[in-house]
Amino acid sequence: MTKWLSISDVKEIIAATSAEEVTASYLELIEKSSINGYTCTSDGALDTAKMVDKGEVAGPLAGVPIAIKDNISTKGLATTCSSKILEGYVPPYDAHVIERLKAAGAVIIGKTNMDEFAMGTSTESSCYGVTLNPWDHERVPGGSSGGSAAVVAAGESPISLGSDTGGSVRCPAAFCGVVGLKPTYGAVSRYGLISYANSLEQIGPMATCVEDIAAVMDVIGGYDARDSTSIDNKIDYQAALVDDVKGLKIGVPDEYFGEGVDSSTEKAVWDAIAKYEEMGASWGKVSMPNTKYALAAYYTIAMSEASSNLARFDGTRYGPRSEGENWHVMASRTRAENFGKEVQRRILLGTYALSAGYQDKYYLKALQVRTLVKQDFEKAFANFDVLMAPTMPLPAFKIGEKVEDPLSQYLTDVNTVPMNLAGVPCISVPCGSSDGLPVGLQIIGNHFDEATLIRAAYSFEKNTDHHKARPGEVA
Amino acid sequence: MITKDEVEHVGWLCRIEINDAEAEEYAVKLSSVLDYFGQLDEVDTEGVEPTYHVADIMNVFREDVVTPSLDQKDVLTNTAEEKDGYIKAPRII
Questions:
Q1: Could you tell me whether strands B86-87 and B82-83 are parallel, antiparallel, or unpaired per DSSP bridges?
Q2: In which band, very low, low, confident or very high, does the pLDDT at B59 lie, cut at 50, 70 and 90?
């Protein structure tokens, strides 16, 4: 079996051989893998594949393997957020997206490595150690959904799910040269996604092509009453796979090409915009003046929400429990001994930002700046259909390079956090390379306008070859 | 800026045990991040409403009817200590 299959390739092979054979060969690839992309594989994968072969399970993704980020609850399959504090935790229920995938016949093949509790841009904070970037094993795969991007880039799963709180799908998609979508806030149910910053995050798919992104979204998108922020908004994702951008108005925000953007990255993105022009789209500059404050607002809000969401990990209901003469000491020790340093830093900072005397200075202020960032997008979308920018200001950095200085790693999220503050959808697609490493073009759309986003991304893919570049084969 | 004492106080608030050396290290690293957050002070937000949430929804209600929930046995499988169908924890006070 060849590597790097699309969903339609997988279906063809299943028709010619069997779903069991396809799943078995992926499990074999994973077994031999050297990139540490998976935290575990599923014992039930082969059983599901056999059921597909017997016709007991059918659906649009029948027999198609999918890798799942380790913060999405899978019944009977360990879910740890790559944290020691959830060591041994096996969820008694499936997340909404997992229920949907199973109903569609997909084979949950395994769980993927991530930054602990999705806090990071490199997958280095995982308790299982870093995942290696398939393009260069000395470099990070991006994060926090580093495992989900790397296994697709390495051909160890055709598709995967990640989650994106401030760029956690798009950053690793860009660093690993795959496609990754962060849907509009509310488009995909978060039921069963272990929360980090609940007002910012969405589950999103990753794949080698836009077509597969649309196919997964048609399965996982839509209303779910168990997520009170789920919005009933029916989008036909696959119907948007149209190769036509004539008349599309592209806004290019100056602020996303600021200092610190690598010159080859910038060139690849401008070449992509020129390509769109050639294909019949037009572009113009747009100013989004509050972008420079988005990062500080994002981290203040994300850490504040994290300090509340992660309060549940106290050694009582799940995970390891440390010794202590009373509950408070037990909980304090359990958390000190089992949360990693970055998670502890964020909980401490979030607690501080929400504590008496500081709440208005930090948290409230950040929420007001969030309003201004959101208004920048509203103004931009009054004149443009989509916005385009580099996903990441630089290609994948070296392992260890940004570990000691947390702020230096936060700064790499400058182009991805504003969309989470505003809740707008965005997609990262491969658009070239910088020093042999993939570069991602970020396309940003208006709320629930995923159709335009997918049409724009699909058209680019149909008229260029960037998405065909594979690790070890880069020109 | 955040002092060592403040780090210890915040550590207690969020139930993370911090020793002396750690408190000192955190005070330095957290201060540099707080300095960065301080740039928000430059922004004029007079009269700007805060955005807690981007979705344009207020209250979400459902019918108050009983629906099946997780089995008690399944819920208890992940706890460190169980007794008579309950989760057992050390005394609070």
A1: antiparallel
A2: confident
